[in-house]
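Researcher: Structure for this, please.
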Amino acid sequence: MDNLNNNVEENFNIGDIISKYLSFWKWFVVCGLISLVAAFTYLRYTSSIYQTTVKIKILDNSKGGSPLPELSALFSNSRVNLSNEMEVLKSHRLIKRVTKDLNLSTSYFKVGNIKSPELWNDAPFKVFWVNSEGSILKEPISFHVILKEEGYQMSVDDNVSGPLYKYGKVNAVKKFNFILKLNTTDTSKFDAKFKVVRNKVFAVVENLVNILGVKVSNESEVLILTLRGTNKGKSEDILNAIIEKFNEDGIQDRQLVSQRTIDFVNERFVYLSYELDSIENRKESYKKVNDLSYLEADASLTSSKIAFVDKEYFSTQTQIALSSLIQETLATDKKFSLLPSFGVENVQTNELIKDYNKAVLERGKVMVSAGEENPMVVELTNRLIESKENILKSIGVLQNQLSPTLKKLEKLKTENSSVFRKIPEKEKILRSIERQQSIKESLYLFLLQKREEASVANAITTPSIKVVDYAITKRKPISPKRNIIYIVFLVIGLIIPFAIIYIILLLDTKIHGKLDFERLSPNIPIISEIPFIEENNRVITKNDRSMLAESFRILRTNINYLIPLEKKGECSVIYTGSSIKGEGKTFVSLNLALTYASLGKKTLLLGADLRNPRIHQYFNLEKDRPGVSNYLYDGNTEWQNLINLNMFDNESFNVLFAGAVPPNPAELLSNGRFEELLAILKNEYDYIIVDTAPTILVTDTLLISQLADVTVYVTRANHTDKKLLTYANGLNEQGKLNNMAYVINNVGGVSGYGYGYGYGYNYGYGYGYGSDDKKQPKSTFLKKLFKQLKIG
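Model: Predicted structure, token format:
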């Protein structure tokens, strides 16, 4: 249950805090509007920054053209390395060339009242520096120019005056010569003020390198270059110049490779020419020494010779063998057998063998019918013997002829074999010579071809890049971002009053409403909240239906519930008090009395604040009008003579003023006559409303506090300090105030009744001076705002 109560209280407190800030909504609105105006002014006079983009594709030119396959590692890379290309694009060397070509070290501005926009191609004149480099500048130089039709005026300060200088003539600023040339016929440019700034080339290059962005587009070979600047045309020209210089740089690199290739080939030609001559001379000498014409033909001829000699040698050996076989057969044959006809390559021998075999056959036929003694047989036998001898002689002669031939053939065979065995060695040597010759010739032809290719590539170069998109500037600026600026300024505009209000609330020790009482004084009831009324007339009238009148009717009703039962039907004495002056106790006393009188109840308003009476002011009467102080001081004074009857034309409403301010009010209130007076008045009235003195300032009220039936303790919202509630709570706990209840005055308003007050250790200072309730004029809107932030 306790946790639930705590949560409810926390939620309640959060809502209370929010409501406190919402009560200052006018400040948030005003500060928000001011911040939006400030944002608009800032955007109006702040130079917009635009982003320019260019897209290029890096081309791979390493596979074609002049680089040699074997020497490619020396002259080029075989693939595109985007990281290297990005570094080249942002290199100081390349950016410096762009800076000098576009003359970026010189800037032109049109001087305005608040901002000076930079000019580029629309500059009405150009400055050309004579015989001087931006790199020798120690610091930037600038001067102002006013164009005239017949010349121009210049000055290094804002005050441009003096003689006219002719266009196109050499002039000087800080010892740097320049020529100013007019490039416009627009007369509206005349008499306008311009500013020329010349910066160091290195500083311009460094700045351009820093703001130039290069990135890869989605892992492709396309690079995106971005540049931010206030002048669209200048940014576009810079980016286009960068890619142009980058392309030229790549072309020059490839031309350099081609030229190096040509130079390398020319150097090799001298060496190769000498090598080829040496190899050809060596081959010629070798052929002469070894009697070679064409190795394959020579080998074929030698092979033919060997085959022919082998054939002849074999044939000769065969003839010798056949002749020896016939010879051996004839020598061992005793019966005259037929001789084999092997085809001896000798006509005479073959004829003799043929005749011999014929005679053998004839003899054999004859011997079939005759014997060996037969004359025909004998004749044929003799003829065979003679023929055999002739054959043997013929064979002997043939063998004598074949033996020398066989020896010659053996010699030729040996020689041919020796020659044939040397052919592989000669072929090896010759092949080695021819191989070297072939290699040198191939390399010579290859280099000759590459030199021609390099010459063509040097004359006709392909671009390094393909421009996907030339420089394009976005239509909307990237900075300042208008929506974000408005939001930021609006947030700041809301934070400032929030911070101020937070500090004010943090330092605020005043009570503001019923919630403060419920936290600080939970045991003392709050019987009414009197609203803030800005009108001059703050006194209720008969049949009044205003908010003020209703609040006092509520107060009247709640007081009736506080009156003890035993006092019902008797005169009720109601005290109205406060801690300090200025909380509105007299205002509450008067209107509470009028509220009771409006019911027809006989009501008396009694002034018991003897030190600083205020009731008379509401009736426009003098301060020293006789009243309570007179009765307390002079025992012979009749109280009837002090009563003011029928006030505000109300028969039920009477007033007893405080009277003249005495020097000893405490002694008068404690002499017993006040109690006697009150006892007498109770018999005459239904309600007695007593306007007492502030309790924390003086002790007067506490001297007579026990005579009250109800004590209405008046506090004032946005005025009463919270520490004063602690004091009032102490009075209640100690029983010094009877039947005490709080009334909160001025709820929903600001401190504005004009009360002068102090509290703490200074509560007593100045009491009795000033005014409790002065007429308040209507406030203007701004006054209300400042009043709302005012701490009492």
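Researcher: Any notable elements?
Model: Residues 59-239 form one domain. Confidence is low (pLDDT under 50) at residues 1-12, 64-78, 751-779.
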